[in-house]
Design goal:
Length: 382
């Protein structure tokens, strides 16, 4: 994988996520280049570089908007939102993290105000409070099937939109990016941690979708990115209204995985605060104990919907062996495991080294399992 910070997987992963979501390598080089020889623990310099990068885009966007170039302004505001969000990933909870996240939301709101992003804001009532999200709808005369996209441990709905864009809409599928327990607004603004029984928020979302007239909630797929692959599989196993499932990184036993990583000494500094934060516990050891509930070992046989698992051969977050175990255990008659190799490109976690082909593959697969637009050809991919 391309490592902007050679030998520093944690910081490099933030760079690659920003690139996945439309960031500019030129921007990243100008602003982060001076940090290549700085210690990874210099969080003040890290936060300042990402903030400076984002503020530069915001200034350029404001100038474009004043000149009437709204599409150009919207793109720059969206990029600024990505930079703010990517920069706060390594920052522990506190004023700096909160300010960066608020700036990300503001920049995204500015992009929406330009009037060119095809998004509809929605708010879903759930046992965890309101779940905020955005619908990305295709240009269609009738309600279309829906794919709910779940981020992992540190992706927000804004980052998800910047990553998937209109990929599903172009295939006649409405896409919902949404903040749920442990992600986005819920964890950052309301302190709502993740939960192992993710069928609960999924059920609430489907309940909401069934009240709407602009989607076909008889056909709802779930797509989970990274740790979200757990959320998707768990939802499919226990929510019968899910029509198809995609795990973009195949999970097996998250508790055992994190325990092994910690015991082997791969628990970098962010893990010390991140795991307790996301799980709603006080210490790493308490978090590791609670994470035992996040296992799919006995759950995968309950997944019987059409299933696609996509994984990277060299994934350093979730071993490819976990994806293979998940695939073998899944109860689906229609299931496929796609492992990307170094030769294919996309061998890293969530194909961060080459995500485009994977995203198109997922969208093609889903469009062949969900009803197509009238008159539209169904992709041959199977």
């Amino acid at each position: 994988m391309f490592e902007f910070f050679p030998g520093d997987h944690v910081r490099s992963s933030s760079v690659n996520l920003a690139l996945m979501a439309g960031g500019s390598l030129a921007d990243l080089g100008r602003w982060l280049g001076p940090l290549r020889d700085a210690p990874g623990a210099d969080l003040d310099a890290w936060a300042a570089a990402w903030a400076g990068m984002a503020h530069q885009q915001e200034a350029l966007a404001a100038a474009d908007a004043a000149a009437g170039y709204l599409a150009a302004a919207s793109r720059r505001y969206l990029r600024a939102s990505v930079y703010h969000a990517a920069g706060q990933r390594q920052i522990p909870p506190g004023p700096t993290k909160s300010e960066s996240y608020a700036a990300s939301l503001q920049a995204f709101g500015n992009a929406l105000d330009c009037g060119v992003l095809p998004l509809v804001r929605i708010h879903v009532d759930s046992p965890d409070g309101t779940l905020p999200g955005y619908l990305i709808a295709p240009d269609a005369s009738s309600p279309r099937p829906v794919v709910i996209v779940y981020g992992g441990l540190d992706l927000t709905k804004e980052m998800l939109y910047a990553t998937v864009g209109d990929t599903f809409a172009r295939r006649g599928i409405t896409c919902l990016v949404i903040d749920t327990p442990g992600t986005g607004e819920l964890i950052r603004l309301r302190g709502v941690p993740s939960r192992p029984d993710y069928e609960v928020p999924t059920a609430a979302i489907i309940d909401h979708l069934r009240t709407r007239h602009d989607v076909d909630a008889r056909h709802v797929a779930v797509l989970g990115v990274s740790f979200g692959g757990y959320y998707a599989a768990r939802s499919a196993a226990f929510e019968p209204r899910v029509s198809a499932c995609v795990s973009w990184a195949g999970s097996w036993d998250c508790g055992a995985l994190w325990r092994r990583r910690w015991d082997e000494g791969s628990g970098e500094e962010p893990t010390r605060w991140f795991l307790p934060w996301v799980t709603g516990t006080g210490t790493v050891q308490e978090a590791l104990e609670r994470l035992k509930l996040w296992t799919l070992a006995d759950v995968w046989p309950r997944v019987r919907q059409p299933l696609l698992i996509v994984h990277g051969e060299d994934d350093r977050e979730i071993p490819v062996a976990d994806a293979r175990r998940a695939f073998e255990a899944a109860g689906s008659a229609d299931k496929r495991l796609r492992v990307f190799t170094r030769e294919d490109g996309g061998a890293e976690h969530i194909q961060s080294d080459d995500p485009g082909p994977t995203l198109d593959l997922i969208a093609d697969w889903l469009s062949s399992r969900l009803p197509a637009l009238p008159g539209s050809p169904v992709p041959a991919f199977a």
